[in-house]
Amino acid sequence: MTTRRSYFANILAVLVAAACGLNRPAPAQAQAREAQSNEAQSGADDVVSRESVWRDPDIPALGNPDGDVTLVEYFDYQCPVCKRVHPELARAVRDDGKVRLVSKGWPIFGGASVHAARIALAAKYQGKFAQAHEALFTAKVPLTEAVIAELLSQAGVDPARSASDLAANRTAIDVVLARNHAQAEAFGFPGTPAFIVGTFRVNGGLDAAGFKQVIAAARAAQEQR
């Protein structure tokens, strides 16, 4: 980089959605000045670099791994808005077909959320991150360690192996979660859910149409560069 300002601190627009609702994003042009004046925190450049945000090697990409637009979500498996938004996001990603989805656990709802985020990442060691992620997001009951183990089992994930892989890789997994947390704070997100869509930053939840709108805007912005 040529300046201390990170790539994502120069995002083209800030699309703000209400954190407690499913609202359409604000027009990009109306928020451009705010984005241009938002300086990165000193020393945070590496944390919020394009590669660190978009292509963390420790987080499996969902959606289309070869997609032309990357959508990063910061979520908590116990966040009620995240759970409501999850099927809307999944629908938008599925309908588009060309979106790389990077799901970054940001557990802020207590110990059960931390365990869920850890165990989902541990499931990647048996190639089952996507299955664990979906099972935890669609749970209809409060999460506990016992509930999580049952959900994994029902989704075809070996809960005993996940627990073993978590024990063996706990430090590495906690480093990933710490990195997710640092990114979310560097972007100034007030809580979950939050998203980076291309170079757009979105606070709060959208419906499928809102996600499609911001994905299209991100794709258009990339084509203009």
Entry keywords:
globular, Glutaredoxin, disordered N terminus, alpha/beta, 6-stranded mixed β-sheet
Structure description:
The protein has a six-stranded mixed β-sheet with strand order 1-6-5-3-4-2. The protein has a single domain, classed as Glutaredoxin, CATH 3.40.30. With 225 residues, it is of the alpha/beta class. It contains eight helices and six strands. The longest helix is centred in the C-terminal third of the chain and has 28 residues, at 159-186. Helix 3 (80-96) crosses helix 8 (208-224) and helix 4 (111-122) runs antiparallel to helix 5.
Topology:
Layout: E1 13-16, H1 32-36, H2 50-54, E2 61-63, E3 69-75, H3 80-96, E4 99-105, H4 111-122, H5 129-137, H6 145-154, H7 159-186, E5 194-197, E6 200-203, H8 208-224
Parallel strand pairs: 1-6, 3-4
Antiparallel strand pairs: 2-4, 3-5, 5-6
Could you say which structural class the secondary elements and strand pairing correspond to?
Answer: alpha/beta
According to DSSP, the number of beta strands is 6
Strand order of the largest sheet: 1-6-5-3-4-2
* Mean pLDDT reading: 84
Separation of termini?
A: 17 Å
**The first-level CATH class name:** Alpha Beta
Globular, elongated, flat, extended or rod-shaped: what is the shape? globular
Indicate the CATH topology.
Answer: Glutaredoxin
Low-pLDDT segments, ≥5 res: 1-43
Order of helices and strands: EHHEEHEHHHHEEH
